[in-house]
């Protein structure tokens, strides 16, 4: 029997605010444990929450970017459960009236676009962080994260493979970064994902028993965890067994999922309207103002690069995957560089250097205008591509402009035909065998002559000019000069 995979994802995105959602505590990551706390976020008696307006605007911008229908009248609810990292014994969230509903994103799978529906985007406060001793002897709780504003993005069960799940997550992250809603650093917990996966016989409408996967800290591991679950559940169903509804975690060491707890039925969170907060009304003016802040999103930008700049789909995809990279590339082009040349340099040399040195594009030692200047030197024939790469490395190390380094490194390329003609004639005279081979039809022999000329000029001769002069002197291979 063949099975169809059904996956739905719940993505938690911490919002990029300076203070928490209901109090004035800082949201800075990495502060000493339990220092960014106050009586409000710790749930002390007699305290009252005050809604952070910026958190609402960021959530609203995210929902708009995800093509959601905005509920201009919505409310907050109490989600009641008891866990050590939840000091109040409840979480202020949104239940039946979230800020956004019925949205979608599009992903590219195998060269085709697929729409993944979004059930809801709701605004809520984050919980604290529990840290468990490896030997199981004790646990510690850091409440700094308690009350940090976040949105939960719940997808429809439209995802049909682990690869699609990874692509969906990458798309969500990219959109959130473009909108400047969150830094989406999984290693810091500002983007987290829970996955629900089930299998059903191909053609069956009803869903199978689902398994929830939690605590996965990278896109690659999300895909691997889901791939393992597909294999595990397929083996169970083909052997006549029954998949147990449970919560599992991904073990990075064994590349398998491990059971955390069974989940026979959904939790009863006993939701009720939050009594300490008034209903939230988003009027038309506020909605229009936030809508105007939604930027050109990655898929639209990718299409524009292909349409207006004639870039290949691969280039456009790489350049638009990160808003910083896209902005850098556009500045290089605005400074006069050819789009394809700029794309090649940004994708290979710039990103290669940044990745090797664990830097972001904002930390690049080479400014966009400087890279455009280097490309211009290649276009003018001042230096070759090979020399340009050496100059680029020196630019990264020194921050100097390309023309300055070209002079310092003695790399000015010789493009004057009159200056090269004598060297070309001398090489032809001193290499009769290569000349005879070329004129006998061996095209590769021309390369040997070019190499001799480059050696004589210490690599400074313009290869294009050298080839032109040789062809003028020798004619076509197998022909006469």
Binned, the helix content reads 25-40%
Structural class: alpha+beta
- Main sheet record: 9 strands, mixed
- Overall residue-averaged pLDDT value: 93
If you compute it from the alpha carbons, what radius of gyration comes out, rounded to the nearest whole angstrom?
Answer: 30 Å
Quickly count the helices.
15
Secondary structure: number of strands: 16
Q: Please tell me the total number of domains.
A: 3
Rounded to the nearest angstrom, the distance between the terminal CA atoms is 72 Å
Contiguous uncertain segments of 5+ residues: none
Estimate the strand proportion: 15-25%
| Largest sheet: spatial strand order | 2-6-7-10-1-11-12-13-14
Keywords: ATP-binding, Ligase, Nucleotide-binding, Protein biosynthesis
Pfam family, one: GatB_Yqey
Catalytic activity: L-aspartyl-tRNA(Asn) + L-glutamine + ATP + H2O = L-asparaginyl-tRNA(Asn) + L-glutamate + ADP + phosphate + 2 H(+); L-glutamyl-tRNA(Gln) + L-glutamine + ATP + H2O = L-glutaminyl-tRNA(Gln) + L-glutamate + ADP + phosphate + H(+)
GO molecular function: ATP binding; glutaminyl-tRNA synthase (glutamine-hydrolyzing) activity
């Amino acid at each position: 029997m063949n099975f169809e995979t059904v996956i739905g994802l719940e993505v938690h995105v911490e919002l990029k605010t300076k203070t928490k959602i209901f109090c004035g505590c800082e949201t800075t990551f990495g502060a000493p444990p339990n220092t960014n706390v106050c009586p409000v976020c710790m749930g002390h008696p007699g305290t009252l929450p005050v809604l952070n307006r910026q958190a609402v605007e960021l959530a609203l911008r995210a929902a708009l970017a995800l093509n959601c229908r905005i509920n201009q009248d919505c409310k907050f609810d109490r989600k009641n459960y008891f866990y050590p990292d939840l000091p109040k014994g409840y979480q202020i969230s949104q239940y039946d009236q979230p800020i956004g509903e019925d949205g979608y994103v599009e992903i590219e799978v195998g060269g085709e676009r697929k729409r993944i529906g979004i059930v809801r985007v709701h605004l809520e406060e984050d919980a604290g962080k529990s840290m468990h001793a490896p030997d199981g002897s004790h646990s510690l709780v850091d409440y700094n994260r308690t009350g940090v504003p976040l949105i939960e993005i719940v997808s429809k069960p439209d995802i049909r493979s682990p690869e699609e799940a990874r692509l969906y997550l990458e798309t969500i992250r990219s959109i959130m970064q473009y909108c400047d809603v969150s830094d989406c650093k999984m290693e810091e917990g500002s983007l987290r994902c829970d996955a629900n996966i089930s299998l059903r016989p191909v053609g069956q409408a009803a869903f199978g028993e689902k398994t929830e996967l939690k605590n996965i800290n990278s896109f690659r591991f999300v895909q691997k965890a889901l791939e393992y679950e597909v294999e595990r559940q397929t083996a169970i169903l083909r052997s006549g067994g029954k998949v147990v509804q449970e919560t599992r975690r991904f073990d990075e060491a064994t590349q398998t999922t491990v059971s955390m707890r069974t989940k026979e039925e959904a939790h009863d969170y006993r939701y009720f309207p939050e009594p300490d907060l008034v209903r939230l009304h988003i009027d038309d003016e506020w909605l229009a103002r936030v809508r105007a802040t939604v930027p050109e999103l990655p898929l639209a930008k990718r299409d524009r690069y292909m349409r207006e700049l004639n870039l290949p789909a691969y280039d456009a995809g790489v350049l638009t995957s990160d808003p910083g990279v896209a902005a850098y590339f556009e500045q290089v082009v605005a400074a006069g560089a050819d789009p394809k040349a700029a794309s090649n340099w940004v994708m290979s040399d710039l990103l290669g250097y940044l990745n090797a040195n664990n830097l972001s594009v904002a930390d690049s030692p080479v400014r966009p205008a400087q890279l455009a200047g280097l490309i211009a030197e290649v276009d003018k024939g001042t230096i070759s591509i090979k020399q340009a790469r050496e100059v680029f490395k020196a630019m990264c190390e020194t921050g100097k402009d390309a023309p300055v380094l070209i002079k310092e490194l003695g790399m000015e390329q010789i493009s004057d035909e009159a200056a090269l003609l004598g060297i070309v004639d001398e090489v032809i005279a001193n290499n009769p065998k290569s000349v005879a081979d070329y004129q006998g039809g061996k095209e590769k022999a021309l390369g040997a002559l070019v190499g001799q000329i480059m050696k004589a000029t210490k690599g400074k001769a313009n290869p294009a000019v050298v080839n032109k002069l040789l062809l003028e002197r020798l004619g076509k291979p197998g022909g006469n000069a």
